[in-house]
Amino acid sequence: MSAIGAGRTPRHAFPPDWKVRALWLGLVLYVAHAAGILQITWARFVVGLDQGERFLGRMWPPNVQAQKVQLIVDGMLESLQIAVLSTAFGVLLALPLGLLAARNLTPAWASWAARAFIALLRTFHPVIVAILFVKAVGFGALAGALALVVASMGFVGKLFAEAIEEISMKQVEAVRATGAGFLSVLIMGVLPQVMARFVGFVVYQLDSNLRNSTMVGIVGGGGIGATLFTAYQRFDYDVVLTILLVVIAIIMLFEVVSTRIRRVFQ
Predict the structure, then answer these.
(1) What is the CA radius of gyration of the chain?
(2) CA distance 17 to 134
């Protein structure tokens, strides 16, 4: 037995995968190369920590003067209005777009065209789209709202189409068997199956638009982002901290509200 065993090739329970190891090695080498090109060094990180400490020191304590607080409240209210309006119009436009993109309800040529349009809407970050709209319609809330409408159409349209494609077609066929038209099939056979998920998509998009309204405001899209950028340019770092604290509080409050809304429709 020992002689037979000695002639066998030893087997490993987990043989090494040299292709995967080569990929990992290539990734590590590329990360090191990219860090060198971008001048990401430990010395710069240490210097940044020291400068960040001084910056935080200039931000504290937050500025709660009545005049500054009023500017922050006005900017935050404008951001809320931008988020609500962009979500409402974006979702209304995303509904037919998502229906067209669902491959189990529409012909292939229509679904692929709708999916290509959704992919185009999702290509660029809302900040880039906001810059384009600022150039087109000028500074202000309109540019920010239009940019977030585009983002809402891309996000909700894609998820709505995927939710429709996962429904049971038995209920749809049962409604069709009664002789109902296409609109009745949608109302009675499709929407009841996706309504809970659709509400979740809308609530999440509203939360996302509320956060993104700050970013689009920095590039001229109005809202609290414009107030934040102005305070930063004036070196009013205590006002910057106040704005950040208000934004954090609003986002956390809306997170609680959105969680309860989802539970109602589950």
Answers:
(1) 26
(2) 52
